[in-house]
Amino acid sequence: MSGEILSQNEIDALLSALSTGEMDADELKKEEEEKKVKVYDFKRALRFSKDQIRSLTRMHDNFARILTTFFSAQLRTYVQIAVVSADQIPYEEFIRSIPNQTILNVFEVPPLEGRILMEVNPNVAYAMLDRLLGGKGLSVNKVDNLTEIETKIMSNMFERAFENYREAWVNLVDIDPLMAEFEVNSQFLQMVSPNETVVVISLNTTIGETTGMINICIPHVVLEPIIPKLSVHYWMQNPDKKERAPGELEKLEKRIKKADVSVVAELGHSAISIEEFLTLAIGDVIELKQRINEPLSVKVGQKPKFTAQPGKINKQLAVQILDHIEGGEDDDE
To answer: Which InterPro entries match (predicted)?
Structure first.
């Protein structure tokens, strides 16, 4: 029996319902005696916490932004890619959820074990292929009879796209994505056992007027060595507090100090026409737009950093630094 205490109003409402026949006392007793059982499917084991799934989602949000930039540059058309879901399901269920004929790119990600699958909906893949070949980005789904040339173009494009996966994983582990297999029939692909838990990240992809999905399937065996790094604590820790190798900063500073940079003192500049340039002869004088009493500009690595005045030291030409150029050291261009 439950230890919950009913209020007087609740008691009155219950007695009224019993007296009018709206509720049956026998049914209430039977319902109380029945055991409440929560069904658990052992084939659909949850091996990742919600916190770890959220971390993977953040990683692939970054990957989606990188892919958007990459495909926009390659295809020269409107591209929008965004994460819409992240789920952990059995591998068999994932294979049943995708078309029998689709674009399947299998990648190895050393030093991690196992392989990662990137499934691209044929509508999206053919829109990309059409743009690469100079078309408007129209989709014609004929993945079952891809030509050898189309296969090569597609595999090269997705291989270069997946190279950007390294940047999405940089905070966890330094991976080296390598394409291991290109397939179009999902029934011929068996990466892991059917009951193995995989994380499926679904990316909604828009290429021009064509929309479809790109699915990233990551088996548990790939993520197992880095599961501790998927916690919020790891992601939120201050990167400045991460351990550094002894003497790392000192070695870096020494190497930077030994780097060679060019230093140029510019006496002045002028502008002439092509015709004047072609008629120049020995003895001609070119007037510079620099007065002799004005300081010279000293450039370091082609960037103006100082002002100086000309002179001589031990019968050699030299310049003496007068002042810093404002903003010169902060110029990141």
So the answer is: CheC-like_sf (IPR028976), Flag_FliM (IPR001689), FliN-like_C (IPR001543), SpoA-like_sf (IPR036429)
For 286-297, the pLDDT digits (tens) are 888 878 788 888
Q: How far apart are alpha carbons 309 and 296 in whole angstroms?
A: 6
Q: How many CB atoms lie within 10 A of CB 246?
A: 8
Q: What is the pTM of this model?
A: 0.58
- The CATH architecture to which 50-239 belongs is 3-Layer(aba) Sandwich (3.40)
At 218-273, the pLDDT tens digits run 998 888 888 888 776 555 554 544 455 557 788 888 888 888 888 888 888 888 88
**Angle (nearest 5°) at CA 132 between 129 and 134:** 110
Instruction: List C-alpha distances in Å: 204 to 120, 129, 162.
Output: 10, 18, 16
Place of tokens 């919950």: 4
Domain boundaries, the chain: 8-37, 50-239, 260-324
